Amino acid sequence: MTIDIDVAKRRGDRLIAARFTAGPGLTALFGPSGAGKTSLLDMVAGLLRPDRGHIRVSTRTLFGDGIDLPPEARRVGYVFQDGRLFPHRRVRANLLYGVKLAPPASRWMSLDEATSFLGIGHLLDRWPGSLSGGEAQRIAIGRALLAGPEILLMDEPLSSLDAARRGDIMTVIERIRDDLKLPILYVSHDRDEVDRLATKVIALDG
Amino acid sequence: MLTPAEWGIVTLSLKVGGAAVLAALPLAFALAWVLARYRFPGRLLLDGLVHLPLVLPPVVTGWLLLLAFGPLGPAGRWLESWFGVSLMFRWTGAALAAAIMALPLMVRAMRLSIEAVDRRLEGAARTLGASSWHAFWTISLPLAFPGVLAALVLGFARSIGEFGATISFVSNIPGETRTLPLAIYSALQIPGSETMVTRLALFSVALSLGALLLSEWLVRRTPAGRQQHDD
Q: What topology is assigned to B4-230 in CATH?
């Protein structure tokens, strides 16, 4: 499993460019705010179109060589900084949103497995608006895992949490890395986070 | 409370108003969506055209409809030759006039609710495997839906009250195009019909106030509405 990225995009007067390969484990994209880290994840997810370059996961080309797969065909899970849970659907419906859309062969986790893995069984009938930051982030992680992704993108998933919750979620991320063996691209500007979680660090400068 | 003749006026008004908003709904939503989501040359002009019936004298709107849908108008001739349908002096013509007059209000209400939908939620849905069409149906439309309902209610109330464009386009024919406001206007011309005027006017007030309250309640159920009112 290799993630091979070489992209460039101009946004306004800023050039966002990165070239690296990442293997299994958690690859931290580390750099100051404004270095274009989130834009980079958006390009991998298919939410932002690079001006040039390529994005490959194993042997699949997601972008480049005339290919530009839409987000829904990329099998790239995305945990956003702000969770982005669907406010009009209960937690259960949020978790199941991607399940029906994924081809059965590509699903590798069931709702039961996800709820016990994340310890969210008691939250299933709640509305997203009533969740704490840590709970919401667990649901966002579960929702991304249930869609059966090949790789997971995480954009500062701890930034809105207090110290105690950060520890909890970091444990969850370590288990995704070690037990589920899902390759993760992880954006952060926090040195401690990166030291604890990363198998490989890519430094991006502003 | 109302006499059979007055009930006839009320049911005709409800029929005209209902047909008007249902006919305007798809067009209003498409216009609201385009105006909320896209930037293109001519957007300001389109916005202006949509709002035109709001500021134009309604009589002028009615006269323009007469030119377009009259027996010699391009749209009128087309309807006549292809479908054998004429809107002239028919309740369907009254519904068309009401729909045109309600359109700006409906587009405005829908556009606000569409603009209030967080587009990043659609991006999240896409990464979970949803096509843009599926994301529209499952995320954007449900989140904007209270605003769409509010637009329907508001448009319905506006349609019921439509006077100027209706009377100049399809005249004032009892049982066919004489809706509530036209009936009140006609009754005012006849000495001794004050009680009828009062009853119909009270009914109009109740209907309009009810619609406004309902539409406001529905708007508060959208995320944007909640934010505005919670501040």
A: MetI-like fold (1.10.3720)
